[in-house]
Each structure stands twice: as C-alpha cells, then as structure tokens.
Amino acid sequence: MNLRLKRGGRWLGILLATVVGISVGSGALVWTRTHIVSLQYQLTRLGELESQLRRDVEKLRLEAAALASPRRIEAKARALGLDYPKAGQVVHLSAADVASGARE
Amino acid sequence: MNRRRVARKKRNVAIQRRRLMILAGLGVLGYAGLGARAVQLQALDAEWLAARAQVHRSTVRLEPLRGEIHDRHGTLLAGSAEVESVAASPRRISDARSTAAALARALDLPQKHLRKRLSSGRSFVWIKRWATPEEADRVRDLGLAGVSLHPERKRFYPSGLAAAYLGFAGRDGEGLSGLELAFDAALRGSSASLPLLRNAHGQRLIRWKGDTNARAGARVVLTLDARLQHYAENLLEQTMQRTRARHATLVALDPWTGDLLAVAERPTFDPNRFWLEKPSAFRARAFVDVFEPGSTLKPFGIAMALDAGVVRADDRFDCEQGAWRVGDHVIHDFKPYGALSVHDIITLSSNIGAAKVAEQLGATRLVEGLRAFGFGQSTGSGFPGESPGILRPLRESQRVERANLAFGQGIAVTALQLAAAGATLANGGQRVSPRLVLRVEGPGGTVEWPSGLGERVLSESTARSIRAMLQDAVARGTGKAAALPQYAVAGKTGTAQKIVNGSYSKDRFVASFMGLVPAQNPRLVVVVVIDEPQGAHTGGRVAAPVFRELVGFALEQLPLRPRGKT
C-alpha cells in the first residue's frame, strides 16, 4: 500500500512538473512574442522618423544648394559693388608656395 | 501509538494525493480549454478571422529618392525633395461653391475653374500639385472636408544651370528630357513593398523583412564645371542682348579627355517650372542643332591636305584677286588676294585658297578626311537625340561642291562636332569623344564614362603646324578679337550665310569661332556659335569676343587640370 502511494505520488509530481514547465515555457514564449511586437512598433516609429529626417535633410541640402548657386552669389556680390578679378589679379599658389609662405 | 501515527500518515498522504489530483485535473482542464480555443481559432473560425485580419493588413511602398546630379566639383545641379500636393474628393464636398472660393484664395487659382472641378462628382481630383509650403499650410489651416494634402516628390534644379542639357523630370518622377531622360533608369532607383499591419488603435507596424531593398537612385556626376558654366551662360545672355541674335551656343571642352566643362545656350528655360515654358527652349542646341560652319571648317580640310603631303605650309596658291570661276559658279573672297601661302590661306581666311588646296587633295579624300575628324557622324557623347550632322559623299567631278565644302558650305555640323574636331588639332591629332558624364555612382558600384584619346587622325607635326596657322589667324587675321594679353590663342572665325528658301541669304548669318588655348599646349577648346546676330554679324566681331571673355576667366580663375591628367 505504502509503495503504491509513493508510486502514485511520483507520477503526480511528474505531471505537475510538466504542467508547470509547459506553463512557464508558454509564458516565456508569449512574453518574447509580445516583446518582439513591441520592438516592431518601435522599429516602425523609428523607421518613419528616419524617413522624415532623410526628407528634411534632402530639403536642407537643396536649400543650401540654392543659396550657394553661382547666380545668387554673383547677384549678391554685385549688389555689394564687387566684380570678378581682372586679368593678373588671381595668383594660383602651388603646395610648395604655400609651404614656403608658411615658413616665412 | 504506532498504529495511530500510521493512520494519520495515510490520511495525510491521501489528502496530499487528492490535492495533487485536483491541481493536475485543473491543469489538464486549463490546457484542454486552451486547446479547444486554439482549435476554434485555428480551424473553426480561421477563415472568418483571416478575412477580418485582411482589413488590418496592407503594403507600404517605399519609393526611392531620385538620384542627384552634380557637377565635377560636387556642386548639386539636380536633387529631389518631398512637397505636398492638394487633392479633393468632390463626392464628399457638400458646398462646392464655398470650398472653391476658399481654395482659390489659399492657392491663388481661378475660382471658376476650381468650382468646375469640385462639382465633377468624381471620387478624386488634383487641385494643385507641388504646392509651395506656404500654400500647403494655408490649405491645412482651412480644414476643409473632402480636401486633402498628399506628399509627392519634386525635382529641383537649385542653380538652373545647363537646363537644356540636364533636362527635367516630370510630375511622376520620370525623366522627360536631356540627361534626366538618358539616365532615367539609373536615377530612378528601385522601390520596395513592405507588409504593413495596423492594430485596432490604428498604430502602424511595418514588417521589416522581405523586400526592404529600396535602392536609392544613382548619383550622376557631370564633367561640367558649375562656375565656368555660369560664367558662359552669363556671357551668352549679354551677347544675346548686345547682338539681338536668335540663339547663342557655347561649348568648352578639355581636348585631352573630351570633358565638356561648359555647354551653354541662350535662350534657355527654368527647369523648375518647365511646364510653363515653350518646348522650343528645351533643345540642347550644341548637340542637336546643325549649322553650316563656314570658314571654321577650313583648317580641317587643309590639315588633311598637309598630312597627305599634297601641299606644304609654304606652298603658294593664286587667290585670283578675290574671284574665281569654278564651273558655272564664282567663288569670292572677303578681300582680294594675290598669291597666298597655305599658312596665309588660313590666317587670312581665303575661300579661293582653301578651294584650291581641296582641289589638290581631291573630293573623296576631303570628305574622308572630314569624316575622320568626326563630321557627319555622332560624336559618341551618348546624349539623347544627338545629331550626326550632314556630310554627303562627293564624286571627283563635283568641283563646285568640293570647292564649297573646303570653306564650310554644303556641310552641316553641330557645335559639339566642331569642338571635338578642334580638340583633335589641340591634342596633337587624335580623335576624342566628348563626354558630359564623368561617372555614375550607384548602389552596385561606380561606372566611369570612358574618356581619353582615340584613333590618330593626323600627325603631331601637322597638328602643330595647323595650330601655328590658327595662332597667326588670331594674331594678325580675322580672329584678333579673341586675343588675350597673357596667353597665345589659336583660333578660326566663321561667318556663314544661312540658307533661306533654298538659297544663301544676304542678311542672315551664323557667326562662329573655334579656338584653342594656350595655342601650343592647349588645355581648352571653345566653340561659340551666334545665330543671326543683328548689326555686326561676322565671327570675328560677334563670336571671338565671347571666346576671349570665357577663356580669360577660365585660365585665370579655374584650376584647370594639367595636360593629359583626368
């Protein structure tokens, strides 16, 4: 009788441990899936933010290019009374010229 | 005592066992319940649930940003950005009259036109595409029912330079002309579609797996130098005002690589508002328009005669005091000359002398020689719609046509062909294919456009000899206005009568100048073509000064590469 009781208890213990194991495993699986979905939402938000920032960068680059266009700069320079340098006024320096100038 | 203890123990074990049985039973029941629910969701209600889930499932299309176009130093010439367009659902608009009035004020559009569109009963109509940020804000502030703002891509050309050559992209992002059309496939890039889920709260969830390879369009780097291009365009603008010409075209080329440093023309258009411009302004004239070159062609025929050894530079030809009968035609010189050396035929630009040299060379060799310089065929630039020009074969018996061809009549060339042929004289006698694109930088790597010298057309000594003649043509001939104080210039003027109703006009001309600088070690070849200048109309008076201005700027202020370097 004692032996039967002991044997039955052991089976019950195994069953219980299995149930608990499956429960813990399922819980972990559900938690990881939920976490993945939550990260995907975050990724989506960040992806959209990145796209928006890229669009902003493009706009700013174009704006900078428009502001730096030769036509605009020339118009501004002429408004300030400036003109292109005359023949002989531009002196091109080589790397050696620059180096010797720096030494002097 | 012992018996009592055993009985208690048995009772405890039984209680424990019962508890465990209950717990296990509950567990089994719980899992059975979960299993049943799983069967219900996965099998019984699967179709219904799948149909419901479809409502929350869609795809999001990631459009790549159209690639940028840059000049050789990295200056941005064309780029894209997102702007907003205004649309409406007329079916959802109850009061078309007041909506039209409000939109007309916000967008500065005619109210009548808007009312017509909003009363169409359609489900979707565009009201204004590519609205300005201010206009989009005004529409947003109105908060009109049935009116919405949609993000769209727009192409911008920040400096507006080289408009006809860059071309433009349409409202749907496709290249419509010029390089935008030629490199459309590379510039567009490829889009990607990603699965999109939306939960009950409307939150978006993009599945970043599968085809996320939304590749941006390639970056196209041109050979143009934005500063020189701007200067050239300004010069042509002033020339147009001064001469009241129909068109003006300029090509500046590196004779060692074929790099086009500037290709300008006037009139031009604003590619940022191409839909408001006349299509005739879209022509890339340096590549597609042909003209009779007149005297600018003389050096090429004479170069072939010198190279073939049929004449020498100091051989003298009787220039018949300005009038020479060939068949039933009389050829005239601008001034009467007696005997001139071959050198002086170029320097003084004698039509009769050039015709007599061509007579020595023969019609077949003259045509073949001009073809070797690249006339009558595409230059290989790859530009869409490039004209091959016109160079017809001649029989030896066609004396008049041969004589005409020797001084640039009966042939049609593009400004680009003339510049490329000039580059052959400049680099010592080798063909060069002009290129407008330096490289295409795509996600898969960089593709360099081929450059450099091609087949030999004439010997180095002949090329040097022709350059010396052209140098004299500037120093003491018709091209004096092209001379620079600090550099020796070699060049040739051209003044060609235009053909009107089948005969040569007496008052419509094409003035041109083809020049190389510095004369004996050229780094730049420039061709200037002025179509129908009013008043002064000769190449020497109209086109040569433009050359001088441009070259003066280029050599003084731009770091042009040393000879032979790419």
Largest interface: A-B, 38 and 42 residues
- Please, how many helices of chain A? 3
Taken as a percent bin, the fraction of beta residues of chain B is 15-25%
N- and C-termini, Cα separation of chain A: 110 Å
Q: What report would you give on this structure?
A:
- The complex is a heterodimer of chains A (104) and B (566).
- By secondary structure, chain A is mainly α.
- Chain A has one domain (2-80).
- Chain A is 82% helix and 0% strand.
- Chain A has helices at 2-67, 70-79, 95-103.
- Chain A starts with a helix and ends with a helix.
- With 566 residues, chain B is an alpha+beta fold.
- Chain B has 18 helices and 21 strands.
- Chain B has helices at 2-44, 46-54, 96-107, 111-118, 133-142, 163-166, 178-182, 184-188, 226-243, 285-288, 298-308, 342-348, 351-361, 363-372, 399-406, 415-426, 460-475, 539-557, and strands at residues 57-62, 69-70, 76-88, 125-131, 147-156, 192-198, 204-206, 219-222, 247-253, 260-266, 316-318, 323-326, 329-332, 339-341, 430-432, 437-442, 445-448, 453-456, 490-500, 503-517, 524-531.
- In chain B, strands 2, 3, 4, 5, 8, 16 and 17 form a seven-stranded mixed beta sheet that branches.
- In chain B, α12 (342-348) crosses α17.
- Mean pLDDT of chain B is 90; it is low at 561-566.
- The A-B interface holds A 1, 5, 8-9, 12-13, 15-16, 19, 22-23, 37, 40-41, 43-44, 47-48, 54-55, 58-59, 61-62, 65-66, 68-71, 74, 84-85, 87-90, 92 and B 10, 13, 16-17, 20-21, 23-24, 27-28, 31, 65, 75-76, 79-82, 156, 158-161, 203-208, 226-227, 230-231, 234, 484-486, 552-553, 556-557, 559.
